Amino acid sequence: MRDRLRAGVAIYNDGYYHAAHDAWEDYWLDLESGTDDERLLHGLIQFTAAVYHARDRNWAGAVGLANSGRDYLDGLPADYRDLGLDPIRLALGTIATDPEVAERRPPIPIEHEGTVPTLADLGVEPTAIAAIVLAEELGFDEDPIERARTYAERDLTAGGDDSRFITLLFDFVREDEHRGLVYQRLTGHVDRRRSREKDVEGLF
After folding, report:
1. Any transmembrane segments, and where (predicted)?
2. Same domain, residue pair 14 and 99
3. Cα–chain-centroid distance for residue 125?
């Protein structure tokens, strides 16, 4: 939960308002309806969607999402799961009554664990989650990213701490201007690793 939560928060804080929910949605769909965790993620998904629609001038959509987002977050502690929920609830109330606020000021950042995390602040697992989300959002094939994540996890499990796949996942997430180049390098390394594995399999 913590890694998915933090990945989505960082994606949102870096301005990918529409994509943030993809870090949470699969996990949220598996939760029992009405639990605190389910309400939290549902509310965050509604919040990020409300921000996205307000910035896209879809006023009716933004208002509807803001109202439902407030309902889901209502009653949760202000620091539930180390999130700063009061500013989010206040922002949802503002969007619900004045969605055009999106044209006058930037969206509020989300605070988690006492800071405002961005993509540059994430650890290995939240970065791997963010890489898959950003690949989908930005039109990259997700398969090489998924495989790089698997290889990075294997390397870490084997005791390595210098995996090229970890480095490339970090770079893919953090390097906006060079993301395409990083993706090409990552894909090349994934292809070579797969070829070596197939060669080994062929020996047995």
Report:
1. none
2. yes
3. 11
The last residue of one of the domains, among 118, 153, 185, is: 118
Claim to verify: residue 68 and residue 37 sit in the same structural domain: yes
Are 129 and 16 a contacting pair, CB within 8 Å? Answer: no
Helical spans, DSSP H, in 74-178: 85-97, 124-138, 142-157, 164-174
Q: pLDDT in tens for each of the 204 residues of the chain?
A: 999 999 999 999 999 999 999 999 988 988 899 999 999 999 999 999 999 999 999 999 999 999 999 999 999 999 999 999 999 999 999 999 999 998 888 999 999 999 999 999 999 899 999 999 999 999 999 999 999 999 888 877 776 555 889 999 999 999 999 999 999 999 999 998 888 877 665 554
For residues 77-116, one letter each, b for 16 or more C-beta atoms within 10 angstroms of the residue's C-beta and e for the rest, the string is eeebbebbbeebbebbebbbeebeebeeeebbbbbbeeee
Record the tokens describing residue 196, joined without a space.
Answer: 């070596």
Cβ atoms < 10 Å from Cβ of 64: 17
List of residues 6+ apart from 10 with CB closer than 8 A:
117, 118, 119, 121, 122, 126, 130
Range of the domain at 160: 123-202
- 3 state DSSP class of 114: coil
**CATH code (residue 70):** 1.10.3450.10
- Based on the fold, state whether residues 76 and 17 are members of the same structural domain: yes
What's the length of the chain?
Answer: 204
